[in-house]
Amino acid sequence: MKLLDVDDLRSPTWAKLKKHFEQRRNDHRIENDKRLSDLDTAYLRGRIAEETYLLELAGLPPKPE
Question: 25, exposed or middle or buried, with CB in 10 Å at 0-12, 13-18, 19+?
């Protein structure tokens, strides 16, 4: 789904949001690699999925990690 147009993707606001969500997703992935309870793992996986969804608003495929 491509919600943002070319002008949106070139905006400084999108650049800041993209950087923010990528960093949060990376932080959550690192945290998820630790020994956690099932509930904490599910919570982090949900956060990672939501951050990935927000990054995909640009209609771009996710970057390989």
Answer: buried
